[in-house]
Amino acid sequence: MLRRLARLLPDHVLLTDLAQREAYAWDNTGMRALPDAVVLAESEAQVVAVLRFCHQERIAVIPRGAGTGNVGGALAVRGGVLLSTQRMNAIIEIAPDDRLAVVEPGVVNGVLQEALQSQGLFWPPDPSSSHTCTIGGNIALCSAGPGAVRYGVTRDWVLGLRAVLADGSVIQTGGRTSKGVVGYDMTRLLIGSEGTLAVVTQAILKLAPKPESRRLSRAVFSSVEQAARAVSSLMTTASVPSAIEFLDGASLDLLRETGSVSLPAAGRAMLLLEVSGAEDEVERRAKVVCDLVEAFSPLEQTPPVKGEEAQQVWAARYALSPILKKRAPKRVNEDVVVPVSRLSELMVGVETIAQDLAIPIISFGHAGNGNIHVNLLVDPEDRPLMAKVAPALERLFRLVISLEGSLSGEHGVGTQKRDYIQWEIGSDSLLLQQGIKKLFDPNGIMNPGKLFPDS
Amino acid sequence: MLRRLARLLPDHVLLTDLAQREAYAWDNTGMRALPDAVVLAESEAQVVAVLRFCHQERIAVIPRGAGTGNVGGALAVRGGVLLSTQRMNAIIEIAPDDRLAVVEPGVVNGVLQEALQSQGLFWPPDPSSSHTCTIGGNIALCSAGPGAVRYGVTRDWVLGLRAVLADGSVIQTGGRTSKGVVGYDMTRLLIGSEGTLAVVTQAILKLAPKPESRRLSRAVFSSVEQAARAVSSLMTTASVPSAIEFLDGASLDLLRETGSVSLPAAGRAMLLLEVSGAEDEVERRAKVVCDLVEAFSPLEQTPPVKGEEAQQVWAARYALSPILKKRAPKRVNEDVVVPVSRLSELMVGVETIAQDLAIPIISFGHAGNGNIHVNLLVDPEDRPLMAKVAPALERLFRLVISLEGSLSGEHGVGTQKRDYIQWEIGSDSLLLQQGIKKLFDPNGIMNPGKLFPDS
Lengths: 455, 455
Description:
The first copy, chain A, is of the alpha+beta class. Chain A is built from 16 helices and 18 strands. Helices cover about 35% and strands about 20% of the residues of chain A. In chain A, the strands form four sheets. The first copy, chain A, has a seven-stranded antiparallel β-sheet, with helices on both faces. Chains A and B meet through β9, α7, α8, α10 and α16 of A and β9, α7, α10 and α16 of B.
């Protein structure tokens, strides 16, 4: 197989050595799965060649961006050809008049943002891995970050796509206009499809004007309930913060231990509240937000800060993930989402699960969207502890569904949640989705073992 | 057939008299197509009963909202059962904490907006027919209006749907959360599918805080090019107007004739520029917009006005459609869309078509989205004039495609543009879309004769 594939591609594009393949055997889950070959595609033509060949030979193809995913989506769990688009990293065009950029899938999110800076524009999806993750990965997973509370998610910021189907045919979806209703919405069908339908080779991204200025304040509460109520209230007001981030009591304990932030001893929940806008508007907006939060009796509320000072506050939030990685040998990172009005119930339920099963759980995340990262801190060597992970996740997912939430706000399904997808999606809808999959990929070569329970 | 259908439904739900059916034989195109029966469904159960029966008997079902569509989408062009959801008009829930509303499809857009008023919220899609059109129709067509330049279109403001498939099975898509990436995006697949895939029976709508205040200014230019350049420039700035509406020279002539507005004699293009936001922000923003427009040498620019005065300016814009209806025995109303940077080329091209073919054409629309309503004023009795309609449309559509635009920004395809859909959508993509159609509706009963050329 490899010899015939090699005939279709330049030498430096096809990697077959064990050491080279090892470099593409991981993602952010800590799992490992070795592909049979790695293709570092440099052009759409090469993507077409690989897919056409694998379609005929019925070989699995695993599309991959930067490998920063959290659900095993970019892992070759059934072997096959890992198809990286990282080398297709050209920013083809930035058109400020039309507020759009045309990019290849391998462009790193942060690199695009830098390129847009001088135009006063930005692309709103802001996952915390933005310095590493690629636009292709963002599209495959429908990524988002703190800014989603104001700007929405990846699906809201893509105008059109070029994509290669399993059989090597190329389709174009959407276009360069901000409106368009001719035919079915194939753009959104591909966004979030986790590499199971097609490989994106070009994207037309919708851009937004970059806010002139930002203000960030911090509020610490004695209970999760108080913090959650403040969030609900903020969401009913006209001054939409550009981020409403939440940290639970266990997160605050961790911050206290690292000594990075000084916090009230009784603090069991924290909100980071950011507003953005024109220079002469943000002060007023930040005040509106602070006044509103004041009504929920925070133990402490810092006045809004900007620039370097704000960066420092954000740094504490972003330090949590790496700290957790160091703390526990393994972290099971879920990203459940509930309606904002049910946040308090979610957090109380998560604490109960942690206590009942005696598993350390640390939760933080995008409260304005009800999207919380629930981190189970475990140790693969500790068998009794590991045995409690599955029951804990089952209880968490049942809780989320009972609160009318979703199992994933931004990470996706991949291999990690495919056994649970039926808890959320009814059988008639799942059947349709599997029908769509079969239509796009009749031989089932696109990212097998992901998304669907029986794939 | 009718007798058996009658057994499934209460008497007052099934209309079979000619006079009753006549009332559902029209839409906004001026065309007429008589259904064999009309069902005024009052519940999802009745929708299920009708679809299950028609699926088995292979009878066409034409879903219909308020019949305000512009492309024949709600017409029974092949006979069959017209299924109106107008009686399913309950606002089931308004949840300000979660910024959502749950509605039945027959709720009138404007009725929902009124119900939201006291909560300080609104649902952004704002078609000019909002006082009549239903949410179900808005979803079927992915409707939009002037506000789309700031808020986007229907697909951006729906969180989840309940829908009945052709065979009577019920699916649920999305949910009550503002994020969610589990499975394919079935919500967006249904939005804009023009009743060819399913009948929506419930929608969870995402709401936005209603801006406290608005300011509207008017700028008149000596040429379309100047106005178009001002629009491009506005789109690159941070202060996004909430509407940028355009009127061409022929529209201004019409306004002059009616004596409703006094305009500079040399004026050949007008922009209506609206900004919205907090009370103490709009003045500044309106000034930013006016200063920017000033650089493009308008013949006249009015200072920003609010309230009643602004309503009067809008009234002139909205008076155009009814005036046109009275002026010409027939109006062919297209809603093409191009990238904003190509607006000027579009307008010059349209003028050339009007001159070359000696057809009166009046254009106006949502310039901030590059979405222009191109109205051909004709007379069905005037055969030589009517013979020029098809060639004019062909030239218009070729022009739009050459400018990287789309044949429709908000009206959809229906019967009117289905012969042109292949100009915009490649054959591989069209094949996939037809495959999706077959998957949802194997017997082809859902709104036949719409969207696809061979349906």
